[in-house]
Amino acid sequence: MNAHLPILEIKNLSKSYGAVKAVNDVSMHINRGEIAGLIGPNGSGKSTFFDCSTGLARPDTGKVVLDGQDITGWSLNRIAREGRMLRSFQKTVTFKALDVEENLIIAGQMFTFPTLASTFGLGKLSRSRIAALRERARELIKMAGLWDVRHQPAGNLSGGQQKLIQFASMLMPEPKLILLDEPMAGINPKIIERVVDTIQYANKSLGVSFLVIEHNIDVVTSICQRVVVLDQGAKLVEGLPHDIIQDQRVREAYLGG
Amino acid sequence: MSLTDTAPQARRRDLRIPLAAILVVAALAAPFIGTRYVTHSLIIALIFMLPAHGLNLLVGYTGLLSLAQAAFFGIGAYTAGLLAVHYDTPFYVNLLAAGLVSGLLALPLGIPALRLRATSFVMCTLGFVIIGQAIAKNWISVTRGDMGLSGIPKPYFELGPLSFTVTGTTSFYYLALAVAALGTLAAWAIVRSPAGRNMVAIRENETLAESLGVPTWRYKLIVFMISAAFAGVGGSLYAHYLTVVSPLTFQMYYSTTMLIIVLGGGAGMISGTVFGSLLFVGLTEALRVAPEVRMIAYGFCLLVLVFWFKKGFAPLINRFWNAIGGSK
């Protein structure tokens, strides 16, 4: 694929729920290797925009192009599996009954086994694939600082730790692009630092591009190279983080103009 | 922990292998230990173990509550019965055909049913049993309606020059034991495979699984089909054992029994289903000798289950198994 093309390009995306236009003709792109931010007041359509871009919801109109391929209308699982674009959820989710290591292995399985039928295999090949996944899972667990709790059920761990599990899970398949929906919401400052570190590590060392919805403006200014602001379902402004926080329109939108 | 605590533990023996050996011997010797009636009860338990394993894959591992199991059990019973009566085919052909027909019929039934959410899905699967019974009753040219199919031959095998018929209760017990053991092994292999892990992922959080690339819809459909195939195989044994199948094979009571086996034994554990089949089916069959207290005892069992063993007996079995495991 063309190296100078954006990794993700979203063109004129719209989505209505009844009479409410949740997202109204929004276009944006994410450059290869970039960490882009998506901000906006509550109800501005950020999550709907995310859902429509990742296949969780179907956009009414518009086009989503991932790495040169039109993926509009693909299902969530296909976008993840074939497009290697992964997303997190606002509410932290893990497989609570399963231990940390199993959580990560599940995250990698569909990227290691070529067909659905092959996942029913128990032979040597299947076992060696799982062994390789386990090894990768352990590396990521170490990186996320979860080594000591790796055999504990995810549900027993703190919200912040579960966030890290979710994050590490998304790195299992060697993704091209990760979309994070409020990764810092409701976690303590110490974990915020660790999440920021892991995002930057993934970006620099693993070459993963990011789109991050985040309310914590310090985090946005410190990690994002470019920020898009949504307000009432439409794109308000786009630019460098420092310019954005100075922007009068953005301030008005947040203060309820 | 002091040294005196650890010292005897270090010498503790692993009792699991001897116990497993005893269980295998007991399973093989059962027809000679108990009465003929006990053997009969065990056969019924082994037959029900198959649909229960299928249901466990669906309910216990994938998190889909289904009451359709009796429908596929009935389809399997009729498939085997019709083949045996009309074409005089050997037992293993009937068994495979029953599994195949039930499994394949689950595809057109599963496609609309699995689009439904939680309770609607349960109600829909309940409908399959009722529809199955109605068809068995009214498609008289094939099923002979309420009279049922009778005169289904005892299972016979034709392996090259060798052919033999399984006649007595004792020999049928070994046949059922072999099929149930293979079924248990198959269920175990499925849950141990990477697909088994994906099934658990769907049970735990479908959207999350989906977001990690797991094609949840296709998995649910495949597990639904596998679970039906298990039921069909059980149905073929049932037909050959009773030598009669009637529309009553399609009954809600069977679906609930299978569900009780799975939930009571411990959903999401293979050993739980094995134990559950022996306990719930074996027990109700064995209690037939005392019809006055039979349902009371059964009800009491369910009450004990609901109040004291919310997760079924499997965690208990697990703890026991680990406890006799000796020290590592």
From TrEMBL, chain A:
PROSITE patterns: ABC_TRANSPORTER_1 (PS00211), ABC_TRANSPORTER_2 (PS50893). One of its GO terms (molecular function) is ATP binding. InterPro entries: AAA+_ATPase (IPR003593), ABC_AA/LPS_Transport (IPR051120), ABC_transporter-like_ATP-bd (IPR003439), ABC_transporter-like_CS (IPR017871), BCA_ABC_TP_C (IPR032823), P-loop_NTPase (IPR027417). Residues 8-257 form the ABC transporter domain. Keywords: ATP-binding, Nucleotide-binding, Transport. The keyword Secreted does not apply. GO terms for cellular component: plasma membrane. Belongs to the ABC transporter superfamily. This is ABC transporter ATP-binding protein. It comes from Aliirhizobium smilacinae.
UniProtKB/TrEMBL annotation, chain B:
This is Branched-chain amino acid ABC transporter permease. InterPro entries: ABC_transp_permease, LivM-like. The keyword Amino-acid biosynthesis does not apply. The chain crosses the membrane at residues 15-34, 40-59, 66-85, 91-111, 118-136, 172-191, 221-241, 253-281, 293-309. One of its GO terms (cellular component) is plasma membrane. It comes from the Bacteria. One of its GO terms (molecular function) is branched-chain amino acid transmembrane transporter activity. Keywords: Cell membrane, Membrane, Transmembrane, Transmembrane helix. It is a multi-pass membrane protein. It comes from Aliirhizobium smilacinae. Its main location: membrane. It is found in: Cell membrane. Pfam families: BPD_transp_2.
